[in-house]
Backbone:
């Protein structure tokens, strides 16, 4: 167990030494990388917007249905007067 702790300490010290002595990276970000980032951000914004609209719309419909049932405009069994309309057409 002591040998494992010594090895772990040695690996940790070597990692710190490598991190402190690293040379700067010369990286080039071309126009393709920026375009990829932009399209990713736009896609995430579109997905968030659509999901928010769907959630809000569902809640508004549920509230409207609840208010209609409470006011007596629709029947609680869910047919919303469709049977009465069918009889009127005959």
Residues:
């Amino acid at each position: 167990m002591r040998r494992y702790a010594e090895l772990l300490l040695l690996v940790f010290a070597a990692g710190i030494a490598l991190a402190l002595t690293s040379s700067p990276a010369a990286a080039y970000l071309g126009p393709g990388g920026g375009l990829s980032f932009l399209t990713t951000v736009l896609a995430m914004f579109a997905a968030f917007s659509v999901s928010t609209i769907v959630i809000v719309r569902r809640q508004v419909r549920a509230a409207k249905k609840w208010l209609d049932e409470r006011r007596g405009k629709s029947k609680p069994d869910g047919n919303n007067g469709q049977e009465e309309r069918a009889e009127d057409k005959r």
